[in-house]
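name: query_chain
kind: protein
chains: 1
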Amino acid sequence: MNSPPDELIDFIKTGSKFIVAGHKEPDGDCVGSQLALRSALRRLGKEAVVCSAGPFKRTELKNYSEQFTGIPSDYNKSNSKVIIVDCSGKERTGSIQELLDEFPCAIIDHHAASTHSISAPDAPVYTDADSPSCTLLVEKLITALGLELTAEEAQALLFGLCTDTGFLRHLTDKDAQTLEAAARMVKSGASPKTVYNIMNGGKSFNSRVIMGRILSRIESHFGGKLILSYETFEEFSAFGFENRDSENLNKMLLSIEGVQAIVIIRQEYAEDCTVSLRSVDNVDVAQIAASLGGGGHRNASGLTLKGDIPYIKQIMLNTFKNIFD
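structure:
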C-alpha cells in the first residue's frame, strides 16, 4: 500500500480546524475513517468535526450517527480545511457539498474509479486502489503523523476494515499486509468480537420479512451464473432503509453453487431504482456500475437508474449477457 504523500502531511500540520467529510449514504468504512481521523487530529491539537449528509441507513451505524454534526459557525475558508474520506471528491458528499465548496480540501480514497483531478484539482490526494478499505489508509496516515493508535481509533478502523471486507472473508493470499494492519489494531485495543456483533446484531423482525420476500423471487440466469431479484416500491415504502440487511442477503445468494454475480434492484422512488451488484472471482462489477453511471469495488458496486423494475432488469440482463454468453 502507498504511503501518505508529503503534501497531505503538510496540509494537516499547517491547519488548525478541520471538517472530516465522507460520502452520502455512508457505510462502516466511511464512518470508521472519519471518526478515527477526527480523533487523531484532535490529539494533534487541532479542532475537528465529522460531517455527513447521511442518511445513516445501515443498522450497524445507528449508534454512530449522533456524533455527526453541522459545520461550526466559527469555521471559515481562512481558518479551516476539509478532508474528504472514502470518496473521490466533494460531488460525492451529497447535500453538504455546497457547504464544503468554500474550504480548501484534501482527499483520502481507495476506490479504483475516481475523478479527483476534476473535482479537486489542487487538493492533496492520498489514494490506493489496492487497499481493501479506506481505514487502512487512515491508519497509515495516523502513523505518519507520529501518533500511536488509541483503543478508540483502533476500534473505528477495524470496524471500517471489516465492513468493507466482509469481516475479512474477501481477502486473498495477496493481503498479508491487511492482516498485519488488523493485528496492529487489535494490539491497540480493537475487539474483533465487538465489531462482529455490531455488524451482525440488532436486526429487526421486519428485516427478515423483507429478506424472505426478496429471496422468494430470485431468478437464475445464464446457467446459474447470475442471480437477480428485486424489492418493490410498495415494499420499500412499507419497510424502509432501516430494515435492509444487504450483507446477509448477499452472503446467502453468493453461496449458491455456480453463482458468479448477483443483482438486487430496489425501487426506492417512483421514478428510479438503486441497483446493488456483487460478484465473486473475476467478474468486475465496478466496471459494469461505472458504465452505467455508478461505481464501487471490483466485487461490490452499485448505481441508480431511471425507470421501473422490469425496465432496469432488462438493462442488467443485457449487460451481463456480454459477460456470460
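note: Residues 28-43 form the longest helix (16 residues).
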